[in-house]
Design a protein that fits this description.
Blueprint: H1 3-50, H2 53-58, H3 65-79, E1 83-88, H4 112-115, E2 120-126, E3 129-139, E4 145-154, H5 155-194, H6 200-216, E5 220-225, E6 230-233, H7 235-241, H8 254-257, H9 263-269, E7 273-280, E8 283-293, E9 299-308, H10 313-348, H11 352-376, H12 380-396, E10 399-402, H13 417-436, E11 444-450, E12 455-462, H14 492-502, E13 506-511, E14 517-524
């Protein structure tokens, strides 16, 4: 049976059960309260009659009933009592609704306590049938009990009055029951709509699948509702945020956990954000934020995925090497195509010696560079990076010089190669960008690498415009850039500085006489008692 049918049946049965119990309890309470009310009313009337001076004085006359009967009958009719009986201390009646019973003894057997001077409410059977009675003693001027006043209402009349109230209550209960069943249909329909017609088993399976998917994804994931409260967070989000798993983040405001988050903006505007570089706890991460759409395409929250950029370095570096090789091959293909045309022209002009000299020059230059890199830069990752940068420089028309005194063969294994090529690559990219923005005809970038001594030294020099003094303190700040129309810039030097902090290295720079800048990086080759790859 489907969920909405179960809900209709369950809610209807529940309302019916509650209504039935309410009817039984209310009927009993109504009859009990009505009896209590009638008893108090009968007692109050009996007290009033017992305190009437004419009634007390009539007890000393020869025929008390002649005085008492008219008085109490008049009162009985006004208050609606079934009977008002006045009797002496011997229980002989002086009044009764049935005049033929006057002078006869009172029945019911409940006058003993009253003749002792106490007022009572009792239920007993008299000449008119079962009744609820209020009884009060009549005192003379000396305080002696001289008689009894008994005021009664028939049980049958009380039950009939209770049934009249109960019928009205039952009518209202049936109306409430009908409304409750209608509400059951409404609630069931809305629940079905809210859960997209899914059954509990399907929801449970989807919850397990969602949990498994969230924990299997390497990215950190955080989702918020329309009020900015966290609704979903996975284990990798805890790792990136450096928050232990036992700290519950669900229910907290996103701004209390992820400062300067873009999630609230995505919820408010509905515009997604893709591939944005963000700084979390001094970690550069790549984030994506998209809105969550509910029923009727209304924005009900947002979800963000983020991952440390450093974790992507290996893949990014592999891709960058492929791209560099591709760009290099394209540049070399274009360059050598021009040179082949030149050689072809020399041969056609029968300038054979010039053609031979040109071929020898290009062959020696390429062979020398490759041979130098293979001999002095033994690490294939760093060597591949430099070959890619040589090709890129040729295409950009930048004179890229690698100092032939360089040596980078003795690089310790505990230095992460991805970190190393990120440092070298960012410094060279910045230098290329800097010289391309100058108006100088010669655009020169030089690189010197050495592993002699206790440090690895990387020196990158350019002949660009240099760094203005007022900006010297800002160049390592996250997001700072002097590039015109730059997108996602201002990360390179900040990332270099952060990686050097991890490697216990340092970076310095100074302006050159020709107006350019030289950056010098020093990374200790050996650290005692610490694992630099595990430091953050």
């Amino acid at each position: 049976m489907r969920l909405h049918y179960k809900l209709i049946i369950f809610i209807s049965v529940l309302i019916l059960l509650i209504s039935g119990v309410f009817e039984l309890v209310s009927q009993e309470m109504l009859q009990k309260n009505l009896k209590h009310e009638k008893g108090l009313k009968a007692l109050a009337i009996s007290q009033t009659v017992a305190n009437i001076p004419e009634v007390r004085e009539a007890f000393s006359s020869k025929n008390p009933s002649l005085v008492i009967q008219p008085i109490v009958e008049k009162i009985r009719k006004k208050v609606g009592a079934e009977f008002i009986v006045v009797g002496n201390k011997n229980e002989v009646r002086y009044s009764h609704p049935n005049p033929t019973l006057i002078g006869k003894k009172m029945v019911g057997g409940d006058n003993l306590t009253v003749l002792k001077g106490q007022e009572i409410v009792s239920e007993s059977t008299g000449t008119l049938g079962p009744s609820l009675r209020g009884k009060s003693p009549i005192f003379d001027t000396k305080g002696n009990v001289i008689g009894v006043v008994s005021v009664g209402y028939l049980i049958e009349d009380i039950e009939q009055e209770a049934n009249t109230f109960h019928k009205k209550l039952l009518k209202n209960s049936l109306m409430i029951l009908g409304l409750g069943i209608a509400a059951a249909f409404f609630i069931s329909f809305n629940i079905k709509k809210s859960i997209f017609g899914l059954e509990p088993k399907e929801i449970g399976r989807m919850y397990k699948e969602k949990h498994a998917i969230l924990e299997s994804i390497h990215e950190g994931i955080i989702a918020i509702d329309e009020y900015g409260e966290i609704t979903v967070v996975n284990e990798n989000a805890h790792k990136v945020l450096s928050i232990p798993n036992f700290i519950k983040l669900r229910g907290l405001k996103i701004e209390d956990v992820l400062h300067n988050s873009q999630l609230k903006e995505v919820v408010e505007t509905g515009r997604p954000i893709y591939d944005l570089e963000f700084l979390i706890n001094e970690k550069v991460v790549i984030i994506n934020c998209i809105p969550i759409l509910g029923i009727d395409s209304k924005i009900v929250g947002a979800v963000t995925t983020f991952r440390e950029k450093s974790e992507l370095n290996k893949l990014l570096n592999e891709l960058s090497q492929i791209k560099a090789y591709s760009e290099g091959l394209r540049a070399q293909s274009h360059e050598y195509s021009n040179k082949l045309h030149t050689i072809l022209g020399l041969i056609q002009l029968e300038s054979y010696q010039e053609a031979i000299d040109l071929i020898s020059k290009e062959s020696n230059l390429t062979q020398n560079i490759i041979q130098f890199i293979m001999e002095e830069i033994s690490d294939p990752v760093v060597a591949g990076l430099l070959l890619g940068k040589i090709s890129l420089a040729n295409e950009l028309k930048v004179d890229f010089n690698i100092d032939y005194n360089s040596s980078f063969a003795n690089v310790p294994n505990d230095i992460n190669r991805e970190d190393l090529i990120t440092i070298i690559g960012n410094l060279l990219n910045n230098a290329f960008d800097a010289v391309l923005e100058t108006s100088k005809s010669e655009k020169v970038v030089s690189l010197f690498l050495t592993d002699l001594g206790e440090d690895l030294v990387i020196e990158v020099e350019d002949n660009a415009n240099g760094i203005p003094e007022e900006l010297i303190e800002e160049i390592f700040q996250y997001g700072f850039t002097t590039k015109k129309q730059a997108k996602n810039s201002g990360i390179g030097l900040h990332l270099v500085q952060r990686l050097l902090h991890k490697l216990n290295g340092q970076i310095t720079f100074h302006s050159n006489e020709n107006g350019g800048t030289t950056f010098v990086v020093a990374i200790p080759k050996h650290l005692k008692g610490s694992d630099r790859n595990g430091e953050q």
